[in-house]
Structure prediction request, 325 residues.
Amino acid sequence: MPSRHRAFLILVSLGLLAVASFGLALTVGSFKVSYADVFAALLGQEGGAGDIVLQLRLPRALAGFACGGLLALAGALMQVLLRNPLADPYVLGISGGAGVGAMFAILIGLPVLGIDGLAFVGALGAMFLVFGLAHGDGSWTQTRLLLTGVIVAAGCGALVALMLSIAPDSKLRGMLFWLMGDLAQAGSSWPPLLALAVALTLAMPFARELNLLSRGLMQAQALGVAVNRLRYAIYLLASLATAASVTTAGSIGFVGLVIPHLVRLATGNDQRLLLPASVLAGGSLLVLADTLARTVIAPQQLPVGVLTALIGVPVFLFLLSRQPK
Prediction:
């Protein structure tokens, strides 16, 4: 376990990174805003940049931080639950279910609220379908859960491809941006922020038991951990966190896979530190990636999922090269 002093320094450093990411998100763009104008807008003073900061950039940055934190938290939980370092929030078909719901809503012309609603319903439907099929005769293993999730995700992918193939050209761009992850259409920032706060608050009391579970099923049971109850709780929590993120921003890859690995290199595998550190790092990464996505070819915007993939692929290959075994 890291010392209290070292853990404090790590969390403070990641907190400062989060503040810096917000500073860039609020100042950088096709219309540059000075830090003085940002502070004035945040303090409620009227100015030319107030509407840009408070109505456009701040809600988008908050939503990005919340979604990145949710994905990183879900990824860390999934990797412990499945005892698989390649597990990520989307491995159990949650994103695929949300994609089916969102694509159907866009196809029939529903507004943003309807798209978010059907995406969340689709994510919940996939979650319960995977759990029900994997549970089978009343027991399940990590391998059975993983395989069921992969099959359900493949089925959802087929349905998404079918809807893309029959969609009119006028709706294809919006559908593709959703599938690649896009914070431009994120509505209010408070639902994902509330989901992040609740998810982290519920996950932290399980941190000690997760430490024991990561050492092995039999060892955790021998040390008094109610393994079945813990696995059900973690599956539900990670799935709901993923659903909340996907509903807000679409499918954003690699955050939930790479961030827990990077944080684990710095903090070790103590979940009491890994979980909050992953939230701060994941949120900061997504805010920075979204800032880059909307400025690199401004005034046009890229899907943020493209940027996270371009960042995540070389980072993950680097991590694999450091651990050849």
